[in-house]
Write a structure and sequence with these properties.
Elements lengths: L16 E5 L5 H4 L1 H14 L2 E4 L1 H4 L11 H13 L5 E4 L15 H7 L2 E4 L4 H10 L5 E2 L3 H5 L7 H12 L6 E2 L5 E2 L10 H4 L5 E2 L4 E4 L1 E11 H6 L13 E5 L2 E3 H13 L2 H4 L2 E5 L3 E3 L7 H9 L6 E5 L10 E2 L3 E6 L5 E4 L6
Parallel strand pairs: 1-2, 1-3, 3-4, 4-5, 10-11, 11-13, 12-14, 13-15
Antiparallel strand pairs: 5-16, 6-18, 7-8, 9-15, 10-17, 17-18
Helix pairs in contact: 11-13
Pfam family, one: Peptidase_S66C
GO molecular function: carboxypeptidase activity
Protein name: LD-carboxypeptidase
């Protein structure tokens, strides 16, 4: 592994056009009403929308939106389309990695468009980081974020838009959201809009290991990151701050995934660890909590470790740019995360 120079994407503004791609699960078909609401929210805010070919045609192959080559073609068509200013995923899934060998990373690097999504889109984030050396955004997707009823949460949108539009943003301390939610509401019924979202007060971040560090951050869904181990798409995490999050988090699977990173030596080479809130945490009868499980696997470290960060499958969410320089101050219980440089140019 060697040090690579990361380039930043071009900044966006209201009035720009977003290209919508569906890299895995066809949420635009399965959750059609919520998807269309998400599109209307993007337009209401002030963006124009161009759907990728598979998305526009509502192609549905059950668990996926099309063959790997077709999904890659949809993505690359949006990258090459001069009318598209940035790209956003419909949702995640399980099979974004199938696209990777069919992508044109040189073209992706040349176009320098913001590419945003989370969860299984981690496969694209890591591939574009390692093969195109382009920073992408771990942030909102159409259905889960902009499909929120009655409107996208202002905190989630503000985090994305500030990160994506302000090229002068430096030394910016991320706000701690007043409240958070992991409330699951079925989008195959009317529940997603007929049942009010339930929230919890946000107590802030939990210090598992104190310390202060600054460095480049790599953001990933834990399960998807582990699936890339042994491939050229797995990132160089040496001397990086690692931010990992999960959706479905039964303790048995969390222990396995965390242990995989431990066996790979990852926790010995990073300089900081941030754990996001999980949407569906399941202790499976264990007499310990998630933080205790994390520390059991990771072990005692000299670098800062925090949990309960708001980036991932809970609402609202912070948008984070790959390899951006941040400062993690966990010297006290009043944790501060500061963005040290702009994410766009």
């Amino acid at each position: 592994m060697h040090t690579i120079k990361i380039i930043k994407p071009k900044k966006i503004k209201l009035g720009d056009t977003v290209g919508i791609f569906t890299p895995s699960f066809p949420a635009n078909v399965t959750f059609k009403e919520k998807y269309l609401h998400g599109i209307s929210e993007l337009k209401r805010i002030g963006f124009n929308v161009i759907e990728g070919d598979l998305t526009r045609k509502s192609i549905n192959q059950g668990y996926r939106s099309g063959a790997p080559q077709e999904r890659a073609q949809e993505f690359m068509d949006l990258i090459k389309n001069s009318n598209v200013d940035f790209l956003m995923s419909t949702i995640g899934g399980y099979n974004s990695s199938s696209m990777l060998e069919y992508l044109d990373f040189e073209e992706i690097r040349t176009q320098r468009k913001i590419i945003v999504g989370y969860s299984d889109v981690t496969a694209l984030h890591m591939a574009i980081l390692t093969q195109a050396q382009l920073s992408t955004f771990y942030g909102p997707a159409v259905v889960p974020t902009f499909g929120e009823w009655p409107h996208v949460l202002k905190e989630s949108f503000a985090s994305f838009f500030v990160m994506g539009s302000d090229s002068s943003m430096i030394n910016y301390t991320l706000p701690i959201f007043e409240k958070w939610s992991n409330h699951f509401r079925d989008a195959t019924t009317h529940e997603w809009k007929s049942v009010d979202r339930e929230y919890f007060p946000n107590a802030g971040y939990k210090v598992l290991s104190p310390g202060v560090v600054d460095g480049s951050v790599v953001i990933a869904n834990l399960n998807t990151l582990c699936s890339l181990a042994g491939t050229k798409y797995f990132p160089d995490l040496n001397n990086k701050i690692l931010l990992i999050e999960e959706q479905d988090a039964p303790f048995a699977e969390e222990e396995r995934s965390l242990t995989q990173l431990k066996i790979m030596g990852i926790f010995n080479i990073i300089k900081g660890l941030i754990i996001g809130k999980a949407e569906l945490l399941n202790s499976q009868g264990a007499p310990f909590n998630y933080d205790e499980l994390i520390m059991e696997v990771v072990g005692t470290k000299k670098y800062p470790i925090i949990s309960h960060f708001d980036c991932g499958h809970t609402h609202p969410m912070h948008t984070m740019a790959q390899m951006i320089s941040i400062k993690l101050d966990a010297s006290t219980s009043d944790v501060k995360i500061k963005i040290l440089e702009s994410a766009v140019e």
